[in-house]
Amino acid sequence: MQAKVLITLKNGVLDPQGEAVLHALDNLGFDDVDGVRVGKMIELDLSDTNADTARTRVEKMCEKLLANTVIEDYEVEIL
Amino acid sequence: MTFRVGVLVFPGSNCDRDLAVAFDAAGAETQMIWHKDTTLPKGLDLLAIPGGFSFGDYLRCGAIAANSPVVRAVADFAHSGGHVLGICNGFQILIETGLLPGALMRNAGLKFLCATEELTVATNNSLFTSQYATGEKVRFPIAHHDGNFIADQHTLEKLVGEDRIAFRYSNNPNGSVDDIAGVLSENRRVLGLMPHPERVIDPIHPGVDGARLFAGVVNAVFQDT
Which residue, A21, B54, B77, B200, shows the most beta carbons closer than 10 Å to its own? Predict the structure, then answer.
């Protein structure tokens, strides 16, 4: 079983990387971009075969390590 | 009576020796502690977490180190009233463990900053800052990419209200909220700061403003005991 974790900055937290990408896109002529937020995606290979318990485990992993919940939100997708 | 300091060493730490030298110069007896150790040497008065790039700054700065065995022992040490000092990556690690509040994000200008910054000592109500005057200006070097301190409004009000901001930048280099460069824990025994006081302790350095931070904590704890 696989899990995908999507980690994004919380709304309201300024994303300097996103701002830099926005400016770079603008310089390339992509002036139709109003905002950019940069996050990260983590793929996990799990030995679990039950989607519900896998989700609970991965959410715990997010809380303990994968995300910094002071500034980041996470979404778990079980595949 | 000897003041005993343990300096943690992670793969990627690079200010560990400087930190040990600074504590030795202040009269402490210093030993290095490898990150895989699960127990701390007995009788330590202070734990110091050095700057560097622990575990390659993978995932988030300090995140992997914060979950290493030795740091669990550090948390126990802090919770039982021990003194802990985290500088630069050490500050990032303390924040990742939750021993200090807030978060440290990428510098607002996105660049790695290496410069000497003027700071204001925002409180001298801690052993670390006891040899400075509140409001005094000092100059410490900074060298970091992720030092942009952020905290929610409630946490900020608490930090200000409890007089827990230890240092503020005079010319905010990295976008930190309220110019914050260093904060104290609730019991005032854990200090984390991005600037490097250990790099300004000796006449051969560009300054000696940092020496009193180490002298303050070493001497004050002597008087305690």
Answer: B54
Asked whether this complex has an ipTM greater than 0.90, the answer is no
Residues B61-70 have a mean pLDDT of: 93
In 3D, which of B106, B97, B85, B87 has the Cα closest to residue B218? B85
Residue-range domain boundaries for chain B: 4-224
Residue B107 with chain A: CB contacts under 8 Å: 16
- Looking at domain B4-224, its CATH class is alpha beta
Task: Say yes or no for a CB contact (<8 Å) between B107 and A16.
Answer: yes
- What sign results for the dihedral spanned by CA atoms B219, B84, B13, B29? positive
For each of the domains in chain A, give its residue range(s) and CATH number, in order of start. 2-78 (3.30.1280.10)
Interface check for A28 against chain B (CB to CB < 8 A): the answer is no
Contact B32, B17 (CB under 8 A): no
**In terms of pTM, does the model score above 0.80?**
yes
B198 is catalytic: yes
- A64: chain B residues, CB-CB within 8 Å: 67
